[in-house]
Amino acid sequence: NFLISHLEQLKEDCVITPHVNQVEYHPFQRPQELVDYCRSRDIVFEGYCPLAKGEALTDPSIVQLAKKYGRTPAQICIRWSIQNGIVTIPKSTKAERIQENCKVFDFTIAEDDVEILNGMHDGRHVSWDPSLIV
Q1: Which residues does the UniProt record annotate as the domain NADP-dependent oxidoreductase (predicted)?
Q2: What is the pTM of this model?
């Protein structure tokens, strides 16, 4: 959950660069500057809450794309995240949802549809906001 400021501070205080930075990532929270920062420093960006704790599952744009691709809204969000190069960790305790979440490697979202999802970023956090930590 490190932001750029946290990673910069860590760089001053430590000699070891983190290998992974796990951060909230979904269509409403797409911190591209942080993703780019991590990539430029060989830090794997790992995204959690890809379904925005369920908020993304009823969003009209995501539901429409799910219908277009014959998938579920969850599969659209997970596939979008993967296509953006994000290591994605969906969470579920239900076996059928875990199986559904795994079925995202046999289709591709068209670039114009990826851009629709990319454009949904509004800075919303569904977990906690790490910018409050100094």
Answers
A1: 1-118
A2: 0.93
